[in-house]
Amino acid sequence: MRIFRRRPVATDANEIAMHVAKHSGGGRITAIGTVIALVFSAYSLWETSLKQAKLEAYVTGVVTYTRDATDEYLAPAGGFEVFAVPVTIANSGARDAAVLSLQLEAKNPKTGLTGRFDATYIVDAAYFAIRREGERPKAPFSALVIAGRSAWAGTILFYPVTYSNEKALAPAGELQQKIIALRDKHGNLAELEKKLREKNEKMPELDELDAYREKVLVSDGTVDITVKLLSPQPNGWLDRALDAPVPPVALTLQLPGVGENHLTRHVIRLRSAAARS
Known about the structure:
Helix content is 34%, strand content 30%. The protein has helices at residues 9-50, 125-129, 172-186, 189-198, 204-212, 237-242, 260-265, and strands at 55-59, 64-68, 80-91, 97-99, 101-107, 114-123, 139-140, 144-146, 150-163, 222-230, 249-254, 268-269, 271-276.
């Protein structure tokens, strides 16, 4: 009877082949979709959680300068040179980043005097609204932690910690002792300098006095500054391999012609002479 007739073997084989081909194509699509989803998940995990911190520093041209002579015992002649620098630090990575400190390197292109300044205080708008240095509010600078995908902005006061001429940072009292010793030996120093100029002669002791008064920035002069970030060394081998130094920010600034006494009472905005790479 027909109901007991076996179907041709070739017919079953064709159906099985078509069935396998149909379902194997769907499996490949599913596998490809799974791989793509894993790739996107891994990328999302890297961008949101694992990507190493990457810092960038930005400094505007609105840099100000003053002299801090409030500490009569430690301040050098003419007061400490102070640069007030608005800084923005952006972290484009996913992980947090620490900034231990900031350094400012300054150079007088005319005299060759160089100085290293460290981040010492953080200030706000009230610092610039008050004229007398002793009354200007400022908070000590502390290490910063910049969260991933965020930024920090503030105005930092940089104070000198060393000069290429060590006498430029010596306390003013040391200079006064030198002046007193010269007066006891030679009398009136103004008359002595006048006589030396008339004879076109120089006196090493008087030249030494000028070394105590030397500054990286003087009235109507220019200064080259470079701002650098200091971060802790990376720990793991992967962090060390991917670590990249934060590019420094360099500017050339000019101080308008103002009196020396004016500098200890006011905060003077510097002019941007030229940008340096």
